[in-house]
Amino acid sequence: MIPQSAQYLLRFDDLCPTVSRERWQHCRSLIEEFRLQPILAIIPDNQDPELQVSPPNPQFWDEMRAMQAAKATIGLHGYRHLCASGSRSLVPLQDASEFAGVPVEIQRLWIHEGMRMLREQGLNASIWVAPRHGFDANTLRVLRAEGIKLLSDGLIPRPFLRDGLIWIPQQLWAPVEKPSGLWTICVHPNAASDAQIADLRVFLRSHVQQITSVDRALADALPNEPSIVERIDETLASWRIRTARAKKRLQGSVRKHVAYQTS
Ligand SMILES: [Zn+2]
User: Fold this and answer.
1) Percent share of the chain, pLDDT over 70
2) Which of 48, 144, 210, 255 is the most exposed place for a label (fewest CB within 10 A)?
3) How far apart are CA 213 and CA 203, in angstroms?
4) Distance, CA 263 to ligand 1 centroid (Å)?
5) C-alpha span between 214 and 150 (Å, rounded)
6) What is 7-226's CATH topology?
């Protein structure tokens, strides 16, 4: 049966041994306190210097295995998180991508090797989480060939079928009250401030009955192709997100300019 009230799924991004130890600890305490079964978006071989925040944690892979055993869903978060391609993604929310526009043979190599590295750590990735929402039709072709059937992205508020994969939508980066539908809240542990974690804790406390997992969301759903109305709503939602981000970037550069002028 499809639940009437909104359901919320948590996703933690950019996980790798050098994730901020302190910030990740705050996220872990939320996962334990609320017995969350989130998506853990793990980078198999992180080479992104921006994500080398703490010295490599020797316990990291043990922690991931323990969370998998506690029913977290393991996500393949790209390969090395080096977003050097400027090609347009099927989910065009950001400009740079690790995968979109990269030749299919290289994508195949990266995804195959990423899966192998996670398997070597005892982790079975079942969902694709593209760095910066960046992927193309070739990525989806490779994922299908590698046996990955799920993808965490898209803005339609229910699991849906597109290009031969089941999409679990991901639309929020902070808790927002919604009347119905499935909403994934994406948290970046490296960047999550104390105030953001506190907000999330308050939200989780008051919505504890509405927190779901990938398995439960799929059990509740009958994923099919989106309707025309859903596709129009998705395009509008994408436009709103891009506009809000552009506005934020503009405000940031104006602030910097003013600070420079007045310093
Ligand atoms: Zn990322």
Assistant:
1) 96
2) 255
3) 16
4) 34
5) 10
6) TIM Barrel (3.20.20)
